[in-house]
Write a structure and sequence with these properties.
Helix content is 19%, strand content 35%. It is an alpha+beta fold.
């Protein structure tokens, strides 16, 4: 997992989506940005109650997961990037 840094902790604080679908599209766009930077592509989106997860593929296997915690007001709270097994990356890209 790449731990959130203090400089990005409040980056989404003032942002609010208009619906759950709009929030999912924004998280997928953010994951697409990470995928572009590391020569990957995005896969499925998994929605749980207060979490949206997008798979990052390198070749034909899952290389990472972008997880974003949300709240009932359609706000992004916390972003983490993990390996598929939930472990931390030494580096990402």
């Amino acid at each position: 997992m790449i731990r959130p840094s203090k400089s990005t902790e409040g980056a989404f604080k003032l942002h609010q989506a208009c619906s759950k679908d709009a929030l999912v599209l924004q998280v997928r766009s953010l994951a697409r940005l990470f995928a572009f930077a590391s020569d990957e592509r995005i896969g499925n989106t998994i929605q749980k109650d207060d979490e949206i997860t997008v798979e990052l593929f390198k070749g034909s296997k899952i290389n990472g997961l972008v997880k974003v915690e949300t709240n009932s007001r359609f706000q992004l709270l916390r972003l983490t990037i993990t390996r598929p097994d939930g472990g931390m990356f030494r580096y990402f890209v």
